[in-house]
Design goal:
With about 425 residues, the protein is of the alpha+beta class. The chain is about 55% helix and about 20% strand.
Length: about 425
Amino acid sequence: MMTGVSLLVVVLSIFNGFQRQVKESLWQGGPHITIENSFGSGEINNYEKVINHLLSDPKLKNNIVSIEGNITSHGLIQHNNSFNPIMIRAVPIPSVQSLVENGLPNFPRIQNYNRFEMDKILEKRLVFIGKEMGAIYGYGIGREITLAVPGGKFSVERGVQVNIQNFRVAGAFKTGYYNYDSKFVFLSLPVAQEFFKMKGAVNQIALKVNSLEELKFTKSLIYTKLTEQGFEDSQGRTSWSVRTIAEEQENFLAALRLEKTIISIIVFLFIILAALGMVATVHSLVRAKRKSIGTLKALGLKSRDILLIFTLNAMIVGILASLVGGVWGIFVATKLEVIVNALSWTYNTMGSLRYGSEWRDVELVPKDIYYFDHIPVDIDISFIFMVTTSATILSGLAGYIPARWAANLNPVDTIRND
């Protein structure tokens, strides 16, 4: 019982930590809500008018942290003799100082940059790439890279026209979300408008809101505001599309929840197995104390008292096991990083002693796979209380079955046979 409770606490603390870390990475990495024009080329020419119209609603204004036009599009990056698919995003940069201090809501946190290049970010063809993209392609700060994006309209005779330009890497960012840091390239909006041939226009309006719980409500307000009769007629031929980050990452977040549920069920089965073991333990205790039970019943002890004694005995064992298991689980969860590092050091030391120079160090939790600087742990006290309470109740139920048999023993037959 103690092992099952502590194991459940540790496993679910890790899963809670992973989920929290992933959600924070998604939350900080990009816009929470995006508005696009699904008609024609998708350009939003008068996006500032759209922004002002949305901000005229008091409810929307209170929910929105930031709102701005940007350009987000698929593109290609040249590596050796091939072009690889990436995402290109351009956002307004009001000042270099706000960029350096990571004060832009839709720009990821910059880790490394060239300060002399930053002053010309609004004029020159400068880009910021993710840390993982730099590692994959071997691109560092100051490196010239070639990007290609679709340009102009599609025609049967010519197909899709492509704009190809060279850019220089001015810095690197890191969000903590691998797909984001390995796929996205950021640049300033004026440079991107020239690159995409979208003078004065954007193809997306990005919003950040106060909390994830307000996403659906804010989305409904936005769509209602955009489809107002007077405003919709003034925009010409448009077809608005409003998406939230929860919808874009729905499958990924659902997979995380499902994985956590399955692991919880599997580990909870250990507690049930421990409860079944307690049934056998209390049953053995009853068999060993049959003569004493018969004697007590012959002296007038009631059956319900016998039932209460053995049930309480099982519950006390369950309470102690739950408390010790919960405390031990919390201790292991808080010291998990130290424990894993110690195990890794021991394993690698033994491997190097046995295989010598042929041995290559092994990470028990590879950071390049899980993409976290440390093992994320989120200890939920309310959940631990629920687990310990459930274990105590299961212990009581496990003790009730043999206790019921003990209470129904016939004192005469018990004393005679034992």
